[in-house]
Write a structure and sequence with these properties.
Chain lengths: ~425, ~350
């Protein structure tokens, strides 16, 4: 059954400017939806409109097939509960009193909380592990504890739909996880529908089945995290480059954002990185951030440098896992070296399998600038027979030194200064 | 120890009700003429239908002092104490601020100005309370109107509008004072400190129904006031009609204060301090806070007025301030550093 349906919703705070500019959205019962988007894209406004606290101007909104405008505040509060980012309570109510407020929409004017209300409140306090503070004054609790109390109060409303408005953004990692896990459990076990506004894309990706990306009061994209959280969507909405990968342990999507400092002049330059075994370190990130066109090779599949390169959509010459560089890969690598303006050679261990990388540089190098990173001496990482690797390396340096456009650096961080 | 009576609300309510009655009876016996308690009880009981036949009615001076002088004054004192305290509790709830008083929307400044105008123009004195009431509510509604922003009552705007109107009405009163004859001047000044002297039963019959309706209205929205302490948006999302609650609370609270000060003049401090004391005893839950405030306010004002009577009819507002301010400072010291008391 459809929980919430929104058609071309327009709403705002002043007549002059609308915040929601014709948003479409729909969710089924039992779904866990994440809402992300930059500041001012209308995420919180959407939640205010859903609870009819902010009256929308045009469009339509139906809660379980009923028009929201025909429902009273109490009727809405029996279906939808909200956990705001933070709550300030002006007088020292006890935790129990605050949680019981969740029963308000079920009481008539002179009715008092009865045993049943207290039982429900108690159950919700248990679920959020706040029962132990029941008689404590709310202003004696920490921010994380208060937020759990507010979650308990929201659950006491016995809602079908729970709205979290950046509910965990002020909390530390442990409390974030506690609250989101509790909500996730209720979603899975009791079919509680959830809409959760997040600033943190990773948290959204981790808990939500579907993600709505909002941009300028509109639904930019909506769907499963892996479909929606893409480099191009993030670039379009946030205007930044991001790295998207799967977490090696829990398999969740992870988004890392990078500073955007594109230098148009430098963008022309092509940088080819010859690396492997994790030696590229943060090089890819820095080069991409500064707007260079980056290529890399030859890298074996499963090499951590290859994983990094892929996260940045860097073109790479690849080779099968643990296999020596084939003639085909060698040619491709050589081509990239020839096309590049700058070659960066990192200090990866040289063996029989990858010595062809050095050969490619020796053959390909002409007028290109060469930057060597030497945190470790070549002798100490040469595993070829009779020091073939070292010999080749020295030859490259000798060759380049005559033309003087070579830099040998101790730290990869310095690379950008010398390009 | 915080909120020591929170868990014993019903017992406390009964105890405070008995305290109010006991204070009233003791107050009846005290004054320039001291009357024994037994005689007071007999005079009072003899006036109760059916039961009254069993008690001597003691006709004479004592009976007149008790029934026509002290009793109406004490009853009005209780009504005033209740009304001002309930009004204060309501204002503090709506403004989410323990510093709010019943006079925050300009009730007192308006009332004083109305009385000043009446005295200056020599209006027939029984009409003075009506004039005070009209100006008190007129000022309140002006503030209220100024505080409305696009169909929404904005608390900060309301507070500032109240401040401005208070200053403005006070300035107008000062202007009248400046132009007044010395004897009129004293009458106006006396009114700004409040007094229960000269109370007649008619004053009681007029204030009682208004105080009752106002207090019930405030109490009826007590739970809504609680939920509103967690923020207006949250309250709406918990099913509270926030705008309606604010309007009802503000009008009821202003009405309570206005009707009282129209008859007694401006009795300060009661409406500020009594809700505080009640909150310390039973906690901030308005469903408990309002009734306890009412009873505490009633007995506090009788005590203050009895002291006023016995100190040569000094203005009762002076006594509430003399007693109230040090008590307030004591609370401040005791709870300094605690948040949200």
């Amino acid at each position: 059954m459809v929980m919430l349906e929104i058609d071309r919703l327009r709403a705002g705070y002043t007549r002059a400017e609308s915040v929601l500019k014709g948003l479409d959205f729909s969710m089924d019962e039992g779904e866990f939806i994440g809402v992300v988007g930059p500041n001012g894209s209308g995420k919180s406004t959407l939640l205010r409109a859903i609870t009819n606290v902010l009256k929308f101007w045009s469009g339509d909104m139906r809660l379980k097939e009923e028009h929201i405008t025909t429902l009273s505040r109490e009727q809405i509060a029996r279906s939808i509960a909200v956990v705001p980012q933070d709550t300030y309570i002006s007088f020292p109510y006890s935790v129990g009193e605050v949680v019981l407020m969740g029963r308000n929409p079920y009481l008539s004017r002179f009715e008092n909380y009865d045993k049943k209300d207290k039982k429900i409140a108690k159950r919700c306090m248990k679920m959020t592990s706040t029962l132990k503070f029941k008689d404590k004054r709310i202003n004696e609790l920490s921010g994380g504890e208060i937020q759990r109390v507010i979650v308990a109060r929201a659950l006491t409303q016995n809602p079908d739909l729970l709205l979290l408005d950046e509910a965990t953004s002020h909390l530390d990692i442990g409390h974030k996880k506690d609250i989101m896990d509790t909500v996730k459990k209720l979603n899975e076990n009791r079919g509680l529908s959830v809409i959760s506004v997040h600033h943190n894309l990773n948290l959204a990706a981790r808990y939500c089945e579907k993600i709505l990306i909002m941009d300028d009061g509109m639904d930019h994209s909506f769907g499963a995290p892996e479909k929606v959280l893409t480099r191009s969507n993030i670039k379009a909405v946030y205007g930044i480059d991001a790295e998207i990968h799967r977490h090696p342990v829990d398999g969740n999507l992870y988004v890392t954002t990078l500073d955007e400092r594109v230098n148009e002049e430098m963008k022309e330059k092509k940088v080819h990185v010859v690396c492997g075994g994790g030696s590229s370190s943060s090089l890819f990130k820095r080069l991409i951030e500064d707007g260079y066109e980056v290529t890399a090779g030859v890298l074996n599949v499963m090499d951590s440098d290859l994983e990094k390169a892929k996260n940045f959509d860097i073109r790479c010459v690849t080779e099968a896992p643990f296999s020596p560089i084939s003639e085909e890969s060698f040619e491709k690598n050589l081509k990239m070296i020839k096309e590049a303006d700058v070659i960066v050679l990192t200090d990866f261990p040289i063996g029989e399998g990858n010595i062809k990388n050095l050969e490619a540089i020796k053959q390909g190098i002409k007028d290109q600038k060469l930057i060597l990173i030497e945190r470790k001496n070549i002798e100490n990482r040469d595993y070829t027979e009779e020091g073939k690797g070292t010999k080749l390396y020295d030859e490259i340096i000798e060759e380049k030194k005559r033309r003087s456009d070579i830099q040998i650096l101790k730290r990869p961080e310095e690379v950008l200064e010398y390009i | 120890m915080t909120h020591p009576l929170k868990k014993h609300y019903k017992t406390s309510l009964t105890a405070f009700a008995l305290l109010t009655v006991a204070t009233a009876i003791i107050a009846l016996s005290l004054g320039s003429v001291s009357i024994p308690l037994r005689k007071i009880m007999e005079i009072l009981l003899s006036r109760i239908p059916l039961l009254g036949d069993h008690f001597p009615s003691h006709p004479g001076a004592h009976s007149t002092i008790i029934l026509d002088v002290r009793l109406p004054r004490i009853v009005l004192g209780i009504i005033a104490g209740i009304a001002l305290s309930v009004s204060g509790a309501s204002m503090q709830g709506v403004f989410k601020n323990p510093m709010a008083s019943p006079f925050i929307l300009g009730v007192s400044a308006g009332g004083v100005f109305g009385t000043a105008v009446g005295i200056f123009f020599g209006v027939w004195w029984p009409l003075l309370p009506l004039l005070a009431f009209i100006f008190a509510m007129g000022t309140t509604f002006t503030v209220f109107f100024l505080g409305r922003v696009r169909g929404h009552t904005d608390i900060t705007t309301l507070l500032l509008a109240g401040l401005a109107m208070n200053f403005f009405m006070t300035a107008l009163t000062s202007l009248i004072l400046f132009l007044s004859e010395p004897e009129d001047m004293l009458g106006i000044v006396a009114w700004t400190y409040g007094s229960l002297s000269g109370t007649v039963w008619n004053d009681v019959w007029i204030t009682l129904p208004v105080a009752l309706i106002g207090s019930v209205a405030v109490y009826a929205y007590a739970r809504d006031l609680n939920v509103m302490q967690t923020g207006e948006t949250s309250a709406k999302q918990l099913g509270i009609e926030v705008e309606k609650t604010k309007v009802i609370q503000l009008i009821a609270a202003s009405l309570l204060a206005a009707v009282v000060i129209s008859f007694t003049g401006v009795i300060g401090f009661v409406g500020l301090i009594i809700p505080h004391a009640a909150r310390l005893l039973v906690g901030p839950d308005h469903r408990k806070l309002i009734p306890i405030s009412a009873l505490l306010g009633g007995s506090f004002l009788i005590v203050c007025d009895t002291i006023a009577r016995m100190s040569g009819e000094i203005w009762v507002g002076v006594i509430t301030g003399l007693f109230g301010a040090p008590f307030f400072i004591y609370l401040l010291i005791k709870h300094r550093g605690e948040t949200g008391w």
